[in-house]
Structure formats: C-alpha cells, structure tokens
Amino acid sequence: MLSESSSVGKSGGCFPGSSSVLTPSGPKLLSSLGVGEAIASLDSAGEIVFSEVIAFLDYAPSSKRQFIRLSTSSGRQLTLTPSHLVPTEPKDLKTPSSIIYAAKVQVGDRILVRDDDRTLPGGSRVRWDDVIEAELVLEEGVYAPLTREGTIVVDDVVASCYAIVNSQTIAQVGFFPLRLLSTITDGLQSVKDFFWHSHGGQDITTNEIQGSKSMNSRWRQPEGLHWYANFLYSISTYVLPSSMLY
C-alpha cells in the first residue's frame, strides 16, 4: 500500500495528460480529449461500450501532480491519483468486483484490463490481470473525464471516473444532476440545430457538430476542479461517515 500527502488526496481523482483512451476512431491522448466525445467505458453488464464525456471533474493541463502507476503482468500501466477508485477482483468470489482507492491496490491484486476481441460485437473484452508493481510517479497534466457510465478505460485498464468517496454507487447517484443537466443541454442543442436546418441554415455534418461541441465545451471549462465536483466534495464530510472518505 502506498501513501501520499493529504493535499494530493483531497485534490480529486485524475489521470495525466500522457494517458490515452479509446474512441470509435482509435486511441486518443487525454490531453487532446474534449467534452462531447465518446470513449471506451465499462457498462453495468460488464461490457465495453462507448460513453459520452459530459464534463471534466478536474482539468489542469500545466499542473504537476503525484500519481500512482500500477503495472500488470501483461504490460498494462494505469497511472492515476491515489484517491481514484479502481475495480479489483474481490477476495469473496460471490461479488463481481470490489472498488478500492488506487493507493490501496497492492502487488498481487487483480485489476480489469481490456483486450481486443473481434468476435464480440464491441470488439473488446475484459479480464482480470495481476498487479506486479505499484509506484509513485510525478507527471504533468491533470485530466478527469466524467462519462455517462461513470467508468473509463485508460491505457486499456478499467477505472472509475470517481474519487474521494469509496462507493461507485454513491458517487454515480451524487453526480446524477450533472448527467441530467448534460442531457437537457444536449436536447436543447438538438432543437436549436433542427430549427437552424429547417430555416435554411448551412448544412453541416454530424461530425462537424460533434467537433464544434467538443472544442467549445473544453474552451469554456476553467482549470481546476469542476464546480459541481467541488460542491460534492465539500459537503461529503457532513453527510458521509469518515470511513467512506479518502
């Protein structure tokens, strides 16, 4: 088990900009990812799906931060902040997975990795892989994409989008208003696009709309913790027992 300073732990969960995610068109660095893009995630059925990025819970491209790098027997490396949640194989085989902080992952634990499998509809499958090393590293760039699924596949390793609170379910419920707001915003944008086209607006492709949305969303998001994430982290000490907090 690795330890870190409390100031690092309370800053939220994130990944460095050099990490990559999988999009429908191929791998992409987190440093170039935008809101509105779809990336590989794990759904509630345990299948790899592409899920929309609705916000960045933390976004600081020029910041340097201490991360934990988990290396597996198959050569995968997941780099993330110690307070970030990671699915691990449970000791009790009656449960499908156990969510723990990255700082608590030890050599010998097993984490979920993604393999290409063209025989499956999504072209991917997940399996457990042994952790053979856990080390502290200093990396540049702080990125914490939030997908609608609440999970993310980074460098072919499955991780949660959440941190600080040691419950994927509670975190997913807590961020429901943000997902709802994103859905409403997307709906209003679709209505606007419909009226634009129906009244003789210039015809543009779906990809151009998606790209424009991504660039504009990223441009408007200030550096640092997302305001809603900051709000939830602030009230968590009052509504949750200390045993559930990092």
From TrEMBL:
GO terms for cellular component: extracellular space. InterPro entries: Hedgehog, Hedgehog_Hint, Hedgehog_Signaling, Hint_dom_C, Hint_dom_N, Hint_dom_sf, Intein_N. SMART domains: HintC, HintN. GO terms for molecular function: calcium ion binding; patched binding. It holds the Pfam family Hint. Residues 12-115, 123-167 form the Hint domain. Keywords: Developmental protein, Signal. One of its GO terms (biological process) is cell-cell signaling. PROSITE patterns: INTEIN_N_TER. PANTHER family: HEDGEHOG, PROTEIN HEDGEHOG. This is Hh protein. It comes from Fopius arisanus.
